[in-house]
Amino acid sequence: MSAPTRIRRLARKRGSLLLSAVAASTLLATAACGAAAPAGGGDAAAPPNKDDKLTITVYSKFTDREYGVVTKALDKLKAKFPNITIKHEGNQDDDKLTQSIRGGNPPDVAISFYTDNLGAWCSTGSFQDLKPYIERDKIDLEQIPQAVRDYTSYQGKRCAMPMLADVYGFFYNKTQFAAKGIAGPPKNTTELFEDVKKLTEFNPDGSIKTAGFLPSMPFYANQAQYWAPNFGAKFMGPDGKSSLASSPAWKEMFEFQKKLIDFYGGHEKVEKFKAGLGDEYSKDNGFQTGKLSMIYDGEFRTAFIKDQVPSLDYGTAPAPVLDSLASQYGGGFGTGTIIAIPKGAKNPGAAWELIKQASLDTDTLVEMANGLNNVPSTKDSLNSPNLKMPPQFKTFTDIYNSGKLVANPTTPIGDAFLKAVNDFAEKWQAGSVPDLEAGLKKVDAQINDELAQKGAGG
Known about the structure:
- By secondary structure, this protein is an alpha/beta fold.
- 41% of the residues lie in helices and 14% in strands.
- Helix 1 packs parallel to helix 4 (118-124), helix 2 runs antiparallel to helix 14 (362-372) and helix 17 packs antiparallel against helix 18.
- The N and C termini lie far apart (45 Å).
- InterPro entries: SBP.
């Protein structure tokens, strides 16, 4: 898989924890800086006539090979509007987009990788409400899973559509499983722990040689938001406030993490082993070299394996769940790329036509999914015979369409709440948090203070 893809995934999973906090504050400033009001006073702008000549400007973060894949897909709009030009400007991040809105010169269409910024985009009006267009064109949103509908809206306002999705599940080494007499992937945390004990090998000095599953956070795709659905842990309570300390699920999740750390002989041994593993997006990724028998990861890992270690015999499955949550097995965490009409767009009617093409047209979605190795976002595209992926990819389309997909809540503080929880996880695993509940209460207070400053969660 290309370097641009590695950068894109790294940005979504890690860089956003730092960048979106900055972007969110910038976005909130947008509303106070005189950005143009939404076009049409809340009404849907008319679509262009078939022969109209105009240019639709699109901002995205795509570059290189991926830029070409997306540009080709966007250009499919020409079949309906042959005289429209699509000006796709790649390598445009959320800060550049915000600056263009503040300056009164936004693109017609915005594509963002950072779904966790959506609350800030929506709450400031930086993205226009798409409800009038959806109602006018009688769009069937049931084609999109509920969790995906949730992360593309905020407090009932639909200000974005999904373009493609990332879904997280479990990868396991079939060769190592067979060698240890393990018939299949673990379905619950008890089975996971037992498999870890069978698969893990120690050196004569007690250091870790091969780890069944490494519980460090943050590490590769080990982040709180990817683990949480499998423990039934929710970031926000019904009142919109952080509710970690009052949730048995969070306690069980962190106690399970500690149980694994203790099995390996403590935090220091785990960190020493981790330091010898390759970069997440390199050929030397710990799972790809056989140093890790099981990992959490997204569907895009299948493309890395095909490109970097095609001989690896591996399987995929939904991540194991807490024993008491057996009915939730088969689900998992999802996020994705979003597409929207920024405030002040010059051609909102034409922009909506392009958004429909990129988020709802089966052929367009399948073409992009095949080119980018992502999950297409509608049920029809999931079932298209033209979707060409390795057998292991099906796990992720099944999770996406399971009715058990979970996404992060949209908040006006971006993903600052995720950073707070992942920072806590790092301290907890190191043994520097003596009281779990007291530690979680501090995290709740930090998150709720940030929400209160933005007028939310009250």
